[in-house]
Amino acid sequence: MNWVSGRLQAGGEFVSAGNLAVKVVLVVALVLAGGCATSGPPTPPVPPQPVAPPVPKGPSAEEIRQRAVQHFLARAEHAQREGFITMPAGASAYDFYLQVEQLDPGNTQAAAGIQTLVMQLVEQARDALRRRAFGRVSSLLNTADEIAPGNPLSREVRDQLQRERQRARQDVTLEGPGAQTVTLPERELSARSEAMVQMLGSVAQRIREHQLRVVIVARTDAEGRWVYSQLREAVPGYRVRGDIKLGNPPRLLLQKNP
Question: Residue 189 has what pLDDT?
Protein backbone atom coordinates (compact mmCIF):
# COMPACT_ATOMS: atom_id res chain seq x y z
CA MET A 1 0.00 0.00 0.00
CA ASN A 2 1.12 3.59 -0.74
CA TRP A 3 0.07 6.76 1.08
CA VAL A 4 -0.74 9.58 -1.32
CA SER A 5 -1.91 13.06 -0.21
CA GLY A 6 -3.31 11.76 3.05
CA ARG A 7 -5.50 9.08 1.29
CA LEU A 8 -5.09 5.36 1.59
CA GLN A 9 -5.04 3.57 -1.75
CA ALA A 10 -6.28 0.04 -1.59
CA GLY A 11 -7.11 -1.97 -4.65
CA GLY A 12 -7.26 1.18 -6.78
CA GLU A 13 -9.70 2.99 -4.46
CA PHE A 14 -8.93 5.95 -2.25
CA VAL A 15 -10.71 6.23 1.16
CA SER A 16 -10.26 9.14 3.48
CA ALA A 17 -8.97 8.50 6.94
CA GLY A 18 -12.20 9.90 8.54
CA ASN A 19 -14.51 7.61 6.61
CA LEU A 20 -12.35 4.68 7.48
CA ALA A 21 -12.64 5.40 11.19
CA VAL A 22 -16.42 5.60 10.99
CA LYS A 23 -16.63 2.26 9.26
CA VAL A 24 -14.39 0.64 11.85
CA VAL A 25 -16.60 1.95 14.70
CA LEU A 26 -19.72 0.62 13.04
CA VAL A 27 -18.22 -2.82 12.52
CA VAL A 28 -17.15 -3.00 16.16
CA ALA A 29 -20.62 -1.94 17.38
CA LEU A 30 -22.29 -4.62 15.29
CA VAL A 31 -19.94 -7.28 16.60
CA LEU A 32 -20.55 -6.20 20.19
CA ALA A 33 -24.32 -6.13 19.69
CA GLY A 34 -24.32 -9.60 18.23
CA GLY A 35 -22.23 -10.86 21.06
CA CYS A 36 -24.61 -9.40 23.62
CA ALA A 37 -27.62 -10.94 21.91
CA THR A 38 -26.12 -14.40 21.86
CA SER A 39 -24.44 -14.37 25.21
CA GLY A 40 -27.41 -13.13 27.42
CA PRO A 41 -29.98 -15.49 29.10
CA PRO A 42 -33.17 -16.34 27.08
CA THR A 43 -36.35 -14.47 27.90
CA PRO A 44 -38.71 -16.80 29.91
CA PRO A 45 -42.17 -17.51 28.31
CA VAL A 46 -45.20 -15.74 29.76
CA PRO A 47 -47.34 -18.28 31.68
CA PRO A 48 -51.05 -18.56 30.58
CA GLN A 49 -53.57 -16.71 32.71
CA PRO A 50 -55.91 -19.00 34.71
CA VAL A 51 -59.50 -19.18 33.39
CA ALA A 52 -62.29 -19.03 35.98
CA PRO A 53 -64.76 -21.97 35.78
CA PRO A 54 -68.25 -21.05 34.50
CA VAL A 55 -70.73 -20.12 37.20
CA PRO A 56 -73.60 -22.70 37.26
CA LYS A 57 -76.92 -21.15 36.18
CA GLY A 58 -79.96 -21.87 38.40
CA PRO A 59 -83.65 -21.99 37.38
CA SER A 60 -85.24 -18.71 36.42
CA ALA A 61 -88.02 -17.10 38.42
CA GLU A 62 -90.54 -18.24 35.80
CA GLU A 63 -89.33 -21.84 36.01
CA ILE A 64 -89.66 -21.77 39.80
CA ARG A 65 -93.22 -20.41 39.50
CA GLN A 66 -94.26 -23.08 37.00
CA ARG A 67 -92.82 -25.82 39.21
CA ALA A 68 -94.81 -24.49 42.16
CA VAL A 69 -97.99 -24.44 40.06
CA GLN A 70 -97.54 -28.08 39.05
CA HIS A 71 -96.75 -29.03 42.65
CA PHE A 72 -99.96 -27.53 44.03
CA LEU A 73 -102.06 -28.95 41.19
CA ALA A 74 -100.78 -32.44 41.99
CA ARG A 75 -101.52 -31.98 45.70
CA ALA A 76 -105.01 -30.67 44.95
CA GLU A 77 -105.85 -33.67 42.77
CA HIS A 78 -104.54 -36.07 45.42
CA ALA A 79 -106.57 -34.38 48.19
CA GLN A 80 -109.66 -34.47 45.99
CA ARG A 81 -109.28 -38.20 45.39
CA GLU A 82 -109.01 -38.72 49.14
CA GLY A 83 -112.22 -36.76 49.72
CA PHE A 84 -110.56 -33.74 51.38
CA ILE A 85 -112.66 -31.13 49.56
CA THR A 86 -112.52 -28.20 51.98
CA MET A 87 -111.05 -29.80 55.09
CA PRO A 88 -108.59 -29.91 56.76
CA ALA A 89 -107.95 -26.21 56.54
CA GLY A 90 -104.77 -25.43 54.62
CA ALA A 91 -104.42 -28.95 53.24
CA SER A 92 -107.66 -29.45 51.31
CA ALA A 93 -108.14 -29.66 47.57
CA TYR A 94 -109.81 -26.24 47.58
CA ASP A 95 -106.88 -24.65 49.44
CA PHE A 96 -104.37 -26.07 46.96
CA TYR A 97 -106.41 -24.84 43.99
CA LEU A 98 -106.42 -21.38 45.56
CA GLN A 99 -102.62 -21.54 45.79
CA VAL A 100 -102.49 -22.28 42.07
CA GLU A 101 -104.76 -19.34 41.27
CA GLN A 102 -102.56 -17.01 43.32
CA LEU A 103 -99.44 -18.15 41.44
CA ASP A 104 -101.13 -18.30 38.04
CA PRO A 105 -104.35 -16.24 37.84
CA GLY A 106 -106.72 -17.69 35.27
CA ASN A 107 -105.23 -21.18 35.40
CA THR A 108 -107.76 -23.40 33.61
CA GLN A 109 -106.88 -26.56 35.54
CA ALA A 110 -107.52 -24.86 38.87
CA ALA A 111 -110.83 -23.41 37.64
CA ALA A 112 -111.97 -26.82 36.38
CA GLY A 113 -110.88 -28.45 39.64
CA ILE A 114 -112.90 -26.02 41.74
CA GLN A 115 -115.95 -26.64 39.55
CA THR A 116 -115.51 -30.37 40.13
CA LEU A 117 -115.43 -29.77 43.89
CA VAL A 118 -118.74 -27.93 43.66
CA MET A 119 -120.27 -30.81 41.70
CA GLN A 120 -119.10 -33.28 44.35
CA LEU A 121 -120.64 -31.23 47.14
CA VAL A 122 -123.94 -30.88 45.29
CA GLU A 123 -124.07 -34.62 44.58
CA GLN A 124 -123.49 -35.33 48.27
CA ALA A 125 -126.30 -32.88 49.07
CA ARG A 126 -128.63 -34.77 46.73
CA ASP A 127 -127.83 -38.03 48.51
CA ALA A 128 -128.55 -36.40 51.87
CA LEU A 129 -131.81 -35.02 50.51
CA ARG A 130 -132.93 -38.49 49.51
CA ARG A 131 -132.35 -39.55 53.11
CA ARG A 132 -134.18 -36.42 54.26
CA ALA A 133 -131.12 -35.34 56.20
CA PHE A 134 -132.03 -31.69 55.77
CA GLY A 135 -129.35 -30.28 58.05
CA ARG A 136 -126.64 -32.10 56.13
CA VAL A 137 -128.07 -30.84 52.84
CA SER A 138 -127.94 -27.23 54.01
CA SER A 139 -124.36 -27.60 55.27
CA LEU A 140 -123.12 -29.05 51.98
CA LEU A 141 -124.90 -26.43 49.90
CA ASN A 142 -123.51 -23.63 52.06
CA THR A 143 -120.00 -24.96 51.45
CA ALA A 144 -120.65 -25.15 47.71
CA ASP A 145 -121.86 -21.55 47.75
CA GLU A 146 -118.72 -20.42 49.56
CA ILE A 147 -116.57 -22.00 46.85
CA ALA A 148 -118.68 -20.81 43.92
CA PRO A 149 -121.30 -18.24 45.00
CA GLY A 150 -124.53 -18.36 43.03
CA ASN A 151 -123.74 -21.56 41.16
CA PRO A 152 -126.86 -23.00 39.48
CA LEU A 153 -126.33 -26.56 40.70
CA SER A 154 -126.49 -25.53 44.33
CA ARG A 155 -129.52 -23.33 43.69
CA GLU A 156 -131.40 -26.22 42.06
CA VAL A 157 -130.88 -28.55 45.02
CA ARG A 158 -131.73 -25.77 47.46
CA ASP A 159 -135.11 -25.39 45.74
CA GLN A 160 -135.64 -29.14 46.08
CA LEU A 161 -134.72 -28.89 49.74
CA GLN A 162 -137.39 -26.26 50.29
CA ARG A 163 -140.03 -28.43 48.65
CA GLU A 164 -139.04 -31.49 50.67
CA ARG A 165 -139.20 -29.54 53.91
CA GLN A 166 -142.71 -28.46 53.02
CA ARG A 167 -143.66 -32.05 52.34
CA ALA A 168 -142.10 -33.11 55.64
CA ARG A 169 -144.38 -30.65 57.43
CA GLN A 170 -147.30 -32.24 55.64
CA ASP A 171 -146.09 -35.64 56.83
CA VAL A 172 -146.45 -34.48 60.41
CA THR A 173 -150.07 -33.67 59.69
CA LEU A 174 -150.64 -36.98 57.95
CA GLU A 175 -149.07 -38.86 60.82
CA GLY A 176 -151.17 -36.99 63.35
CA PRO A 177 -154.44 -38.13 64.90
CA GLY A 178 -156.45 -40.33 62.58
CA ALA A 179 -153.52 -41.10 60.29
CA GLN A 180 -152.31 -44.58 59.55
CA THR A 181 -148.74 -45.54 58.75
CA VAL A 182 -147.93 -48.72 56.86
CA THR A 183 -144.27 -49.70 56.94
CA LEU A 184 -142.92 -51.34 53.78
CA PRO A 185 -140.26 -53.99 54.51
CA GLU A 186 -137.15 -52.83 52.68
CA ARG A 187 -135.90 -56.26 51.59
CA GLU A 188 -139.26 -57.31 50.16
CA LEU A 189 -139.67 -53.92 48.52
CA SER A 190 -136.22 -54.04 46.91
CA ALA A 191 -136.94 -57.52 45.57
CA ARG A 192 -140.47 -56.49 44.49
CA SER A 193 -141.49 -59.85 45.80
CA GLU A 194 -144.88 -61.49 45.53
CA ALA A 195 -145.40 -60.94 49.25
CA MET A 196 -144.95 -57.19 48.73
CA VAL A 197 -147.42 -57.22 45.81
CA GLN A 198 -150.03 -58.93 47.99
CA MET A 199 -149.40 -56.50 50.85
CA LEU A 200 -149.91 -53.50 48.58
CA GLY A 201 -153.07 -55.07 47.16
CA SER A 202 -154.51 -55.39 50.64
CA VAL A 203 -153.67 -51.73 51.41
CA ALA A 204 -155.28 -50.66 48.15
CA GLN A 205 -158.49 -52.37 49.17
CA ARG A 206 -158.48 -50.47 52.45
CA ILE A 207 -157.82 -47.19 50.60
CA ARG A 208 -160.85 -47.73 48.38
CA GLU A 209 -163.10 -48.93 51.20
CA HIS A 210 -162.37 -45.98 53.51
CA GLN A 211 -161.76 -43.37 50.78
CA LEU A 212 -158.25 -42.67 51.99
CA ARG A 213 -155.52 -40.49 50.59
CA VAL A 214 -152.04 -42.04 50.39
CA VAL A 215 -148.56 -40.59 50.50
CA ILE A 216 -145.94 -43.05 49.26
CA VAL A 217 -142.57 -42.48 50.93
CA ALA A 218 -139.97 -44.28 48.81
CA ARG A 219 -136.20 -44.26 48.54
CA THR A 220 -136.20 -43.48 44.82
CA ASP A 221 -138.64 -42.12 42.27
CA ALA A 222 -138.67 -45.46 40.45
CA GLU A 223 -139.51 -47.29 43.66
CA GLY A 224 -142.34 -44.88 44.43
CA ARG A 225 -143.82 -45.22 40.94
CA TRP A 226 -143.74 -49.01 41.23
CA VAL A 227 -145.59 -48.92 44.56
CA TYR A 228 -148.23 -46.58 43.12
CA SER A 229 -148.70 -48.83 40.08
CA GLN A 230 -149.33 -51.83 42.38
CA LEU A 231 -151.92 -49.90 44.39
CA ARG A 232 -153.73 -48.76 41.26
CA GLU A 233 -153.73 -52.21 39.63
CA ALA A 234 -155.15 -53.78 42.79
CA VAL A 235 -158.34 -51.65 42.55
CA PRO A 236 -159.21 -51.37 38.84
CA GLY A 237 -161.52 -48.47 38.05
CA TYR A 238 -160.77 -46.66 41.31
CA ARG A 239 -158.62 -43.56 41.33
CA VAL A 240 -156.02 -43.80 44.06
CA ARG A 241 -155.31 -40.27 45.24
CA GLY A 242 -151.94 -39.54 46.67
CA ASP A 243 -148.38 -38.37 46.19
CA ILE A 244 -144.88 -39.79 46.03
CA LYS A 245 -142.15 -38.47 48.34
CA LEU A 246 -138.51 -39.39 48.65
CA GLY A 247 -137.50 -40.59 52.06
CA ASN A 248 -136.36 -43.42 54.26
CA PRO A 249 -137.63 -45.75 55.65
CA PRO A 250 -140.15 -46.56 52.90
CA ARG A 251 -143.76 -46.44 54.09
CA LEU A 252 -147.33 -45.49 53.22
CA LEU A 253 -149.11 -42.63 55.00
CA LEU A 254 -152.90 -43.03 54.91
CA GLN A 255 -155.42 -40.38 55.88
CA LYS A 256 -159.03 -39.52 55.19
CA ASN A 257 -159.57 -37.29 52.17
CA PRO A 258 -160.53 -33.79 53.33
Answer: 95
